[in-house]
Amino acid sequence: MSDQIVIDNEKILETAGDYRTLSYEYEKIADEVNEAGKLRDDAFGGVFRDSWNDYYTLLRNCGYETAANLRAYYRALEEIVEANTLTESAIETSFDGLQDDLLGENYERSSVQVENGTGVEDLEAAPDTQLLDMGGTYDAALDPDGTHGQTAV
Amino acid sequence: MAGDEVDGEWVPNGENPDPAYDPGPVDEEIVGEQYSDAELLEGLENVPPREAILAGLEEFRYPFTETRRRELSAARWPEYANEIWTGVWETPSPDDVDPNTGELVNGVRWSDEAGCPVHVQATSGEERAIGEQAVSDANAAVDSIVQRYESVLDDTNYENTLLTAQRIAKARDSLMGFKDDELGLFGNIRELFDTHWTGDLASEKGKTYFGADVLKNAASKQWELAENLRDHAVDEVRAQVTVHSTLGMAVHDCYEAMAKKTHLSIQAGVLQTIADVVGTIGVLVKIPGAANVTSWASGMITKGGDFKVTVTWENVASTNDIEAWTKDLTDGVDTAEGKLDEIRSELQSILTGRLGNVNIGSTEYIPGEGYQDD
User: CA A143, CA A133: separation in Å to the nearest integer?
Assistant: First the structure.
């Protein structure tokens, strides 16, 4: 036991449940942000349209990635309990795979884009969290106009 | 090794899955109250929409045509210009006509084909040419004005902007709720890392990337983003509403000025509705402009009822009036468009400046960010 984190399985599962609730809460928020942006192309004019869009994309990516991280973390906690390998590295390994699955193979996290020199204003819009629930893969075939479901009323 | 996936949910060790997360019913009314800008909404229902303003411009075709008829007729017979301009504006009654000569006044008679007074010796071809030319010119003039208005109004849809602002405000409030730990879960998370996370291989990593304070602070940062987005969206709504109101009033006031200079029996109709509703909006910044438009200031005061045109001979329409009215209307658009561009440039500059201060690649904004890379 000395190479493991000393912790009661019940306690870690209980907290994993809390993270699970928080992850759902954040998915709800991310969906609200997503909903708020659907009309943005028809809501703003001139040069302001682009700056609002850039700023909005930041919030949307933040919400989306937060929801995915929280979900990956609670699942990682549950997995290490189930596997009875209570080590930080086990959590990391588990988290890493889960997060990739949730975000989708084509999704590049905002931090990675920024690190690679992508300007904040060029960040790609994140896929919907509904897509996250289905496996996280953005399907361009379902979005022929590339608007991520944004249409005017 | 992971457990089985059941309906997309991971089930640990084949146990029964947790009941589905239920955030509870949403009270739409309460939500509405929370994120509405009451002052703005109060004025909004009185703002003329794009369609009303364009419908108002359509009402210019008749007086423009009638004025253009006289302009062409007076240009054809300049020595009778005064008689042509001051003669009747609609098919005369027998009382208006000299029973012996059929003249309205000396040297001028009414023409149904031209639709206006013409010289007594005008030929049928001349009369028809005046009538056709007048209709064509007036329509072209109104068409060009309408196009100019459409180009500005097309770029502004305050209903979409308002909806966007309201929805962002809703997300902002949810972020506030998360930050304030409305679900009461942060204490448990604190306890996990502060008390239970011990052992030789236990590190601060979980707390650093997913601790309660990290969750709280990131939600607070995201709340700031939402707050700024909401503020700027509301500013855009205000700018658009100002443009709609201003152009609506410019159209009404120009029509009123024009109507007073013709003696057509015309009513302002939809234009009066615009004037009435715009007059009730007190909170908006007015855009000055439309120099030749009469009574701009008084136009912002509530008016009651449709008006009938009262004609005075001293105030009759004359050559180049269509040009002047057109200029008034397009000047209004120029002013509004310039103001709108100015406001948007300012908003753009502020938001772009704020973008530089956002460090998205850290737990400052995203809990768990960088966890797998550390």
Answer: 17
